[in-house]
Every structure is written in C-alpha cells, then in structure tokens.
Amino acid sequence: MKRAAQALVVAALAACATTDPPERELAAARAMVAQARSVAESDAPIELASAHGKLARAETAMQRGHYEHARLLAEQAEVDAKVAWTVAEDVRMQRA
C-alpha cells in the first residue's frame, strides 16, 4: 500500500513537471482584456480591474513555472474581461 501511494505521488509530480506553458490561454486573456479595456474602463471598472489583476497574477505564475496555476488564472481573466465587456455594453445600451 505504501509503494502504491509513493507511485501515485511520483506520477503526480511527473504530471506537474510535464505541463506545457499556457501560452495560448495567456494570449487569449491578453487579447480579451485589451478588447474590454476600450469599452469597459468607464462603465465596468470593477470587472475590468478583476480581469487585469488575474492576468497579472497569471503572468507572475507563468514566470515562476507554475503553469497550471497560470492557466487557471488566465482562463479566469479572460472570462472576467468578457463579463466587463458585456456589463459595459449593457450600460451603454441602457443609456441609449
């Protein structure tokens, strides 16, 4: 039983070590944050700030080699930026 547990730990560590850098996820998050910025700066600043913060944390995690954490944060940043864009568009539509 002890050997099985050790094998599981080694396998988990090996899986973490072979995780590819989340370049695509970071690029998508950067693009969405940039797109949302022009629309959401004044109408959805809280949501946009959340996206910016998560993107910055994703960049830091990436630099430190914490690829899974970076991937998760990048995906969250992209979603937050989409929310910011949607909220800002909704505010603009209500004003019109």
Structure summary:
The chain is an all-alpha fold and 96 residues long.
Write a structural description.
The chain has 96 residues and is mainly alpha-helical. The chain has four helices and no strands. α2 packs parallel to α4. The longest helix is centred in the last third of the chain and has 29 residues. It is elongated, with a radius of gyration of 18 Å. The termini are far apart.
Shape: elongated
Distance between the termini: 67 Å
Strand content: under 5%
State the helical fraction.
Answer: over 70%
User: Which parts are unreliable, with pLDDT below 50 for 5 consecutive residues or more?
Assistant: none
Radius of gyration equals 18 Å
In DSSP terms, counting alpha (H) and pi (I) runs of 4 or more, how many helices?
A: 4
Count the E strands: 0
Overview features:
single chain; 96 residues; mainly alpha; 4 helices; elongated
Topology at a glance:
Blueprint: H1 2-17, H2 23-40, H3 45-63, H4 67-95
Helix pairs in contact: 2-3, 2-4, 3-4
